[in-house]
Amino acid sequence: MKKYMMMAAVAVLALASCNNASPKMDEQPASADNGNGGGLKIAYVEVDSLMTQYDYCKDFTLVLQKKSNNARNTLTQKGQQLQNAMNNFQQKLNNNGFTSREQAESQQAAIQRQQNDLQQLQARLENELANETATYNDGLRDSLQHFLAVYNKDKKYDMILTKQGDNILYAAKRFDITDDVINGLNKRYKSTFKKTEEKKEEKK
Question: Where does the chain show beta strands of DSSP type E?
């Protein structure tokens, strides 16, 4: 159970921290020539900002948080039931509360089945959370790649990098197109993904 809790916490914390703050920049994105006299055109996107300001991320974070909370509550309840059964068995055993050896063995076997069921449930919930996370990652990668393919038809960048932490030691702010990308992604998300969800609701 503890293993599942740790996995759920890591998965959710990696996607959480989404807020409603608007992107801010102290300079505009790079101009057409990137300020390099017509040479190689490069831009970058701040991954941390993308994760906290892209509506798809915000929505999916809520999904993962809900699934994690439900799983935690379910496992806690089942775990408490198992603990109560084990305590009751031990108490009856100590007080000679079983009328026969067969009765004690039967209850012990029932507790073992209950424990096995809990372990299987834990594994299933871990797998479901992992699948949800994989779905999120695939969707994020797909939407970003499709958006940039359209976005770059006009911008014509030779290279668009991802900047996360210190993986790029230095980059002038004028090469930052994060705002542009986030705003474009959110506009695309609202007009496509949410319409798809509305159609799903209509079919129910």
Answer: 42-46, 159-163
